[in-house]
Amino acid sequence: MATFFNDNISQSINKPPSFDGNNYCYWKTRMTIFIRSLDYQLWNIITNGPDIPTKIINGQKVSKLDSEYNDHDYKLLQLNAKAKHVIFRALSPSEFSRVSSLDSAKEI
Fold first, then answer.
1. Whether 99 contacts 91, CB under 8 Å
2. Is residue 104 part of a domain?
3. Has residue 8 got a pLDDT over 50?
4. Strand, coil or helix: what is 14?
5. Which residue has the higher pLDDT, 28 or 11?
6. Cα(48)–Cα(58) distance, rounded to whole angstroms?
7. Is residue 16 a contact partner of residue 85, using CB atoms and an 8 Å limit?
8. What does the pLDDT look like over 74-101, one tens digit per residue?
């Protein structure tokens, strides 16, 4: 497995850069590139918020019920879960506890 060496710490290219509450600008830059390299759609979810499945009723856009989701809807929802997973894996326990109750990757 390929690795990079930074500050005498080996970091796998498959593991997100760690954030412990210090040096946020440095971490943010590295995390942005890491997420974009995984899947650019994940980055869109983080910056724009999740795509909530909707339908049109009487000319108005409304959220679908869970029972109305199709495969495409589930894939959209899964992107938010993947984005949250990548971010959570990068956080120290104390940082994780600050954001773990948030619903979307954008909120984190």
1. yes
2. no
3. no
4. coil
5. 28
6. 27
7. no
8. 998 999 999 999 999 999 999 999 999 9
Handedness of CA 74, 79, 81, 82 (dihedral sign): positive
The one-character DSSP state at 103 is S
CB environment 15-48: b (16+ within 10 A), e (fewer): ebbebeeeeeeebeebbeebbeeeeebbbbbbee
Secondary structure of residue 16 in the 3-state scheme: coil
91 in a structural domain = yes
- Asked if residue 20 lies in contact with residue 98, where contact means CB atoms within 8 angstroms, the answer is no
* Structural domain count, the chain: 1
The answer to the question of residue 32 being in a domain is yes
Residue 101, amino acid: S
CA torsion, ordered 61, 99, 91, 95, to nearest 10 deg = 160
Vertex 99, ends 43 and 71: CA angle to 5°?
45
Local structure of residue 91 (DSSP, 8 states): B
pLDDT at 47 over 90: yes
